[in-house]
């Protein structure tokens, strides 16, 4: 990803949240999401990442960004140099099911292996069955860890998935 891609990535992320999390995340929270605000946050993170976070984009035949994935070192308590984390993966909602997400996930797995991560972890809303199925079909499996985060006043459970990176190469 280049800095010039940030606005497109934020548009995909916001549209992705609003499409995927309706009925899970409180509607006022989703309605309050703004591409400009997300792009601001993303620009700050992008400038400060120091190469620790890798952002990948998928582009279409016209070089337009249609998907985004972000990964880096695991942020949890048991973090060590061998644990990576897939922080986010979003595809333009109209392109879900076309292979863009799978291509991005495969690229993340390849980059994670090159960075020396043995394992990739990710968090998924417990009730996001579509995403859970996507990751399970790609070889990720739940490991029993659960966390609860607050979104718009609602407490939502997330389950952790684990993937052995060597399985991808």
Summarize the structure.
By secondary structure, the chain is an alpha+beta fold. The chain has helices at about 5-20, 25-30, 35-50, 100-115, 130-135; strands spanning about 55-60, 65-75, 85-90, 120-125, 140-150, 155-165. Strands 1-2-3-4-6-5 form a six-stranded mixed sheet.
CATH superfamily: Gcn5-related N-acetyltransferase (GNAT)
Topology, number of strands:
6
Give the class-level CATH name: Alpha Beta
Low-confidence stretches: none
Please tell me how large the radius of gyration is.
Answer: 15 Å
Q: Give the percentage of residues in beta strands.
A: 25-35%
Percent helix range = 25-40%
**In CATH terms, what is the architecture?**
3-Layer(aba) Sandwich
Order of helices and strands: HHHEEEHEHEE
Task: Please describe what this structure looks like.
The protein has a single domain, classed as Gcn5-related N-acetyltransferase (GNAT) (Aminopeptidase, 3-Layer(aba) Sandwich), CATH 3.40.630. Helices cover 34% and strands 31% of the residues. The protein is built from 5 helices and 6 strands. It has a 6-stranded mixed β-sheet. Strand 1 and strand 2 form a beta hairpin. The model has no long low-confidence stretch (mean pLDDT 92).
């Amino acid at each position: 990803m280049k800095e010039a891609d940030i606005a497109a990535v934020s548009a995909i992320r916001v549209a992705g949240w609003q499409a995927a999390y309706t009925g899970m995340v409180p509607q006022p929270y989703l309605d309050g999401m703004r591409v400009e605000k997300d792009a601001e946050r993303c620009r700050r993170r992008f400038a400060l990442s120091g190469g620790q976070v890798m952002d990948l984009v998928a582009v279409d035949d016209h070089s337009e960004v249609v998907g985004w994935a972000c990964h880096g070192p695991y942020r949890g308590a048991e973090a060590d140099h061998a644990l990576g984390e897939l922080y986010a993966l979003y595809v333009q909602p109209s392109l879900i099911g076309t292979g863009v997400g799978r291509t991005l996930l495969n690229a993340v797995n390849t980059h994670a292996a090159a960075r020396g991560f043995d394992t990739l972890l990710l968090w998924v809303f417990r009730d996001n069955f579509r995403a859970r199925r996507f990751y399970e079909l790609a070889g990720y499996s739940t490991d029993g860890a659960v966390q609860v985060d607050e979104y718009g006043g609602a407490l939502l459970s997330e389950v952790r998935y684990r993937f052995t990176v060597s399985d991808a190469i």
